DNA sequence: TGTACATCAGTGAACGCGCGTTCACTGATGTAC
DNA sequence: TGTACATCAGTGAACGCGCGTTCACTGATGTAC
């Protein structure tokens, strides 16, 4: 028989899962209630208070689980990616597949990242910032894009994470049961990241250079 | 004295504004109630039903207003932007300044884009898709990036819109009353868009080219 | 222009319901001797 | 090992409150003659 603290931990997990079930059913985390969480966890409403002070507290518990999921995902990406030329596709695939396998958690992330209470939003933003810094460190460790200034590299990593976050929202929203749409969105994201990396590779640290590029394109077009 | 239909229109507007007030107060649209909307509109709860069938219906009314705001913004961007080399900065500035001047509406957009009911999410996604297509048409009309295939240009426009959407969420969330942080985020976004455009300018329509760019960077680094 | 009737936006009472939170409780698990 | 007591996760009744929605209503605006 499990010890008292083990049983308590089980109930805590059941409450967190209950909240995710609410999200999985198509509801917004922002409109959840303590009673609905307790109902899904198979526990009386008052039990909630043995584990969390309020719903924000529970949401922060979910962010902790999200954090673990993201770190596992990073580890998987670091080990499973193949040669350089497949690295982007593999990484995006691992991210998207994780998001699909762990849908309620990533739906919660999408919702609470843009809405909900400020403290939870900040906690999720912290996780994504950490993710971006890890990506930045990996790029640096690969010896790639070394001509970029630290701030430009940071900005590039943030741009890539924003792009991946956007695809997550879109896939969970529009392609839940549509395998071929999932593949199409994966491919689009890979292409977008490739485009960002091409931009980084050709980036020169000067504020006027980039718009020169655009003007040059325009001229070329007109003369042709 | 206003006619009956004019008065009705005024109440309708008051209800829409009441919903935005709820968002402005720091609450999530997903947790609003009909009674709270009516209270902020200075009207009895039952009046709500003279204008909307339910809260989704009201949300779609807000999306209509958002649509108008976005179209005005596009028009402003087309008329006010100066020479090519300032165009990106001017456009981002116009977008960010509009979002700050019209905060509750853009906060609603951020929230309902990722959470809330499916029908509202779809409506907002449609607006952003329209925005991306307009951007695409403008780039084409300028004669820029004409070497890109139609699908690559579409993807580029979507990437830019995603980036602008991300900055909107971040500015409304973290820089509401911090002018210097607003400026910093504006600059970062300008840089990100410039980077995307550099990438587009150097893009060649071949699936292996982009990762070659990355590998080339890596090699260069290792040999130096 | 004046009168008589129709329309309908907004009102206010009422309903049953789910909400958060309190409280005293129960009984299995844990601890001290 | 056995007993007596302490701890505490989960229970269930109870509370006052805001919710969505219904209904019959009122009285100003609109329309027909």
Key words describing this protein structure:
homodimer; 224 residues; mainly alpha; Arc Repressor Mutant, subunit A; Tetracycline Repressor, domain 2; 2 domains; 9 helices; 78% helix; 0% strand; elongated; disordered C terminus; DNA-binding; HTH_TetR (chains A, B); HTH_transcr_repressor_FabR (chains A, B); Transcriptional regulator, TetR family (chains A, B); DesT_TetR_C (chains A, B); transcription (chains A, B)
**Helicity range of the residues of chain A?**
over 70%
Report the oligomer: homodimer
Question: Secondary-structure element sequence of chain A?
Answer: HHHHHHHHH
Helix tally of chain A? 9
Largest interface: A-B, 63 and 63 residues
Total domains of chain A, how many? 2
CATH superfamily of the largest domain in chain A: Tetracycline Repressor, domain 2
Q: CATH class of the largest domain in chain A, please?
A: Mainly Alpha
CATH topology of the largest domain in chain A: Tetracycline Repressor, domain 2
Strand tally of chain A is: 0
* Share of residues in strands of chain A: under 5%
Mean pLDDT rating of chain A: 91
Based on the coordinates given, report the CATH architecture of the largest domain in chain A. Orthogonal Bundle
Overall geometry of chain A: elongated
Distance between the termini of chain A: 80 Å
Largest beta-sheet characterization of chain A: none
Structural class of chain A: mainly alpha
Low-confidence stretches of chain A: 208-224
């Amino acid at each position: 028989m499990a010890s008292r603290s083990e049983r308590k931990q089980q109930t805590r997990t059941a409450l967190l899962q209950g909240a995710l079930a609410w999200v999985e059913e198509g509801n917004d985390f922002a409109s959840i209630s303590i009673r609905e969480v307790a109902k899904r966890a198979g526990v009386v409403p008052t039990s909630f208070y043995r584990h969390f002070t309020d719903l924000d507290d529970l949401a922060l518990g979910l962010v902790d689980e999200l954090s673990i999921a993201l770190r596992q995902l990073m580890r998987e990406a670091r080990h499973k990616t193949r040669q350089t030329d497949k690295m982007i596709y593999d990484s995006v695939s691992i991210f998207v597949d994780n998001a699909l396998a762990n849908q309620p958690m990533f739906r919660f992330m999408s919702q609470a990242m843009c809405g909900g209470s400020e403290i939870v939003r900040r906690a999720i933003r912290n996780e994504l910032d950490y993710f971006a810094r890890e990506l930045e460190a990996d790029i640096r460790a690969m010896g790639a894009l070394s001509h970029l200034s630290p701030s430009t590299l940071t900005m590039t990593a943030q741009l890539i994470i924003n792009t991946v976050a956007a695809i997550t929202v879109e896939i969970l929203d529009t392609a839940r049961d549509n395998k071929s749409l999932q593949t199409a969105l994966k491919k689009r994201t890979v292409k977008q990241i490739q485009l960002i990396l091409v931009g980084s590779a050709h980036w020169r640290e000067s504020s006027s250079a980039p718009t020169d590029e655009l003007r040059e394109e325009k001229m070329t077009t007109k003369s042709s």
